[in-house]
Specification:
The chain is an alpha+beta fold and about 400 residues long. The protein folds into two domains: about 140 residues; about 170 residues, no CATH class. It is built from five helices and 16 strands. The strands form two sheets. An eight-stranded antiparallel beta sheet has the order 4-3-2-1-5-6-7-8, with no helix packed on it. The protein has an eight-stranded antiparallel beta sheet with strand order 11-10-9-13-14-15-16-12, with no helix packed on it.
Length: about 400
């Protein structure tokens, strides 16, 4: 080997070594960068207090939450109030969640992790946009595939695994892909899941009347005081109420719930010609006028539902006989506090009149009772045994002996 060839080999070796060192340093720098992100906040300085709009997209589904007049609402449900606690908790978690892992992911790997833009792939993620009052985007977050932790084969739960986090990406930069320990399992573009589920409550029920499209099924029950037995108004001669069948009325609409809010017109919900109407009156002076429309769909036992609420609240209290002054002061105070609570109850429940709700049949089941369902079963009177007539005894026939001929002398 001559000097020239040796020089060339040295140059080539140095070049290869330099390229290797450069690749090593680049990889090492990348790993160091990834390692430095672990334990840091996913979004530094997240402006939680400036967020007044949240848009959630997943495929063709979209949800918009907005803060209007200091109240969060669900725009897809006619600006019905949203569950503030759910929104607040979500924003707090976004601002506090930290990077658990920082995998090195290229742009081509986003679809596999379900971090593709929601309109570009079947393996799309759930995109969340955080905006200010003017609609300007402050941050965005892509929620991707759940991160699974493998269980050992000898685990008491068997093989397989369970989700212990989720892949996420801040904005659209693949360099921000991370695994976090918060799965954000309920962050989906489903309007019904974001609604405030506060609702009215019928308390101290005094009377309930139901009118249906079949007159023979109509009924009205009342009771003279709390805890008393229910009675049927204007019972027919042969009708007697069975107390065990009316106890269900003690809790009629005492804690109702709804599944969704409808934004369609009354002629589409059947509330222009209700399946039934009901009037519920309480001992506290509240009246609830209820309408039940048609079923929402054939495969669900849900109905369209509306309620109108009114109340007559008086501060009058009739003093008891020989009531002492100190007792009067105490009882007057208790009455004033009760009146205040009832007024607040009316103020809180009155807004529910504006909306049409979707409720399960289970919620309004007492209203579907028919008149006959409250009546005691009629006992059949025992049949009186008919007196048996003994068979007639035949009268014996007397046969006279033949006459004997008399001999002539």
């Amino acid at each position: 080997m001559n000097r020239k060839q040796l020089t060339i080999l040295i140059v080539v070796g140095a070049l290869i070594g330099g390229l290797g060192l450069l690749a090593y340093n680049k990889q090492n720098q990348s790993w160091n960068s990834a390692g430095s992100r672990m334990g840091t906040k996913l979004i530094e300085k997240f402006p939680m207090n400036d967020v007044e709009r949240i848009a959630i997209h997943q495929g063709a589904n979209q949800l918009n939450l907005a803060k209007k007049n200091e109240i969060w609402v669900v725009e897809e449900r006619g600006n019905y109030p949203a569950n503030f606690d759910t929104i607040r908790d979500f924003l707090q978690k976004v601002g506090e969640v930290k990077v658990a892992q920082a995998p090195q992911v290229g742009q081509s790997q986003l679809a596999r992790l379900e971090l593709s833009a929601s309109d570009k792939s079947t393996n799309s993620g759930t995109q969340v946009e955080f905006k200010d009052k003017s609609g300007k985007q402050l941050n965005s977050l892509m929620l991707g595939k759940k991160h699974m932790k493998e269980s050992r084969g000898d685990s008491q739960f068997g093989g397989g695994g369970w989700p212990d986090g989720r892949y996420v990406m801040v904005g659209s930069d693949a360099k921000t892909v991370a695994v976090i320990s918060e799965p954000f399992a309920n962050i989906e573009p489903k309007p019904e899941e974001w609604l405030s589920k506060d609702f009215f409550k019928v308390e101290n029920l005094k009377a309930i009347a139901v009118t249906t499209q079949v007159a023979s099924n109509n009924w009205k029950l009342f009771r003279e005081k709390e805890g008393a037995d229910w009675k049927l108004v204007d019972p027919k001669k042969d009708e007697a109420v069975e107390n065990t069948k009316t106890t269900i009325m003690n809790s009629a609409l005492a804690s109702p719930a709804f599944n969704d809010v409808a934004t369609t017109s009354d002629d589409k919900t059947g509330l222009d010609k209700p399946t039934l109407t009901a009037k519920l009156e309480t001992f506290d002076g509240f009246t609830y006028d209820v309408k039940v429309g048609k079923k929402v769909s054939d495969d669900k036992d849900d109905y369209y539902f509306k309620v109108a609420i009114a109340a007559e609240i008086t501060n009058d209290r009739v003093p008891g006989k020989d009531e002492k002054p100190e007792d009067k002061t105490r009882l007057d105070k208790e009455q004033a506090e009760k009146v205040k609570k009832l007024q607040e109850k009316l103020q809180n429940e009155k807004p529910f009149e504006k909306w049409t709700y979707v409720v399960s049949k289970w919620t309004i089941d007492p209203l579907f009772k028919e008149r006959k369902d409250f009546l005691a079963e009629k006992k059949e009177e025992p049949k009186v045994a008919e007196k048996s007539t003994p068979p007639a005894v035949p009268t014996p026939t007397v046969i006279s002996p033949p006459a004997t001929a008399t001999a002539k002398p």
